[in-house]
Amino acid sequence: MNLIIFSKKYSLYFTNTFIFTSKYKYIGRKAFINPYQLQGMRIIKVTTDRLRNEEWFRFHTEYSGLVDAYGPELLMIQRIYSVYKTLYQEADRLLERLQASFITTHTAQAEHLRDELFRGLRDAVKSNLRSLDATKKAAAVKINALILKYNKVIRRDGRAARTAAFDNLLQDLKQGEGGVDLSSEVQILNIDEWVVNLDNANQTFKQSLADRAGEAAHRPQKGRLIQIRTQMNRFYVGMINSIETLLMAIEETNPAPLPDSPDDKLIRFVKELNTYLTHYKSLLKGRHTRKNAIE
């Protein structure tokens, strides 16, 4: 547990991380300025324990996917990330087991329809990669790159991970990946109906699982899932604290890093992570606002 010490000028905390910079007075072993007090970039805070199971798993799917893309070595979180990833894989298996008992004919049909629509969407995009129309070909390249990003998970991983991948794919197609609007590309390729139908099929599949969910029969698995959620959330906070400490060091020693240098990549990681975190912060804020309105 971190020990928080407040002063008039700075907020300090003790942690197992031992990085600190010469810009700030060294207080003692493993003590440094809280990076949240800095004026520079910081990572958006999200209260992950307020997320529902599906949202929570999707949150960690996006985070772990981003870490895998940049490499835990770059972020200097190899050891803690290794334990975190093991817990993530166990959570995937647990969620799949919890859902597997509720698979009915209706659910299986909904899943089959979702897979068929995804294949249809993928084939429609791939056919335009060879188009003689340069505009269509360029649009197909963008959409195909997005599909390939999630294709491996959708084809091979467990049901919970696949559903999270579908959610991410559809969100990127409808709202844009990393703030880049893809609506014009969807219109150019005339695949808007594919996207709508795939979204409907994905929602139908998720609802069919929710409708079959029972509480009593799966208390042991749910109890373990609660434990994993708590552990993963703690590891996530620890990794974020460590990454922000690296940001603090960059601000002090290398405020203008060269393109594609390790420091530049770390800054890009944080910017991309914040695009995901903004969505979840807004999601929780909207839920809180609706709850207050009802009350």
Your description of this structure?
There is one protein chain. The protein has 295 residues and is mainly alpha-helical. The protein folds into 2 domains: 39-97 and 217-294, no CATH class; 103-212, no CATH class. It has 10 helices and 3 strands, in the order βββαααααααααα. It has helices spanning 53-70, 72-75, 78-100, 105-127, 134-156, 159-175, 183-188, 192-212, 219-253, 262-294, and strands at 3-6, 11-14, 31-33. It has a 3-stranded antiparallel β-sheet, with no helix packed on it. A hairpin with a 4-residue loop joins strand 1 and strand 2. The longest helix is centred in the C-terminal third of the chain and has 35 residues, at 219-253. The two termini are 35 Å apart. Mean pLDDT is 80; it is low at 1-39 and 290-295.
Q: Which key terms come to mind for this protein?
A:
mainly alpha; 2 domains; 10 helices; 3 strands; globular; disordered N terminus; disordered C terminus
Encode the helix/strand succession as letters.
EEEHHHHHHHHHH
Strand order of the largest sheet: 1-2-3
**Low-pLDDT segments, ≥5 res:** 1-39, 290-295
Total of DSSP H or I helical runs spanning 4+ residues? 10
- Estimate the global geometry from the Cα principal axes: globular
Q: How many structural domains are formed by the residues?
A: 2
Radius of gyration using CA atoms only: 22 Å
Q: Could you give the distance between the termini?
A: 35 Å
The main pleated sheet reads as: 3 strands, antiparallel
Helix/strand/pairing category: mainly alpha
The count of DSSP E runs of length 2 or more, i.e. the number of strands, is: 3
Strand content: under 5%
Arithmetic mean of pLDDT: 80
Helix content: 55-70%
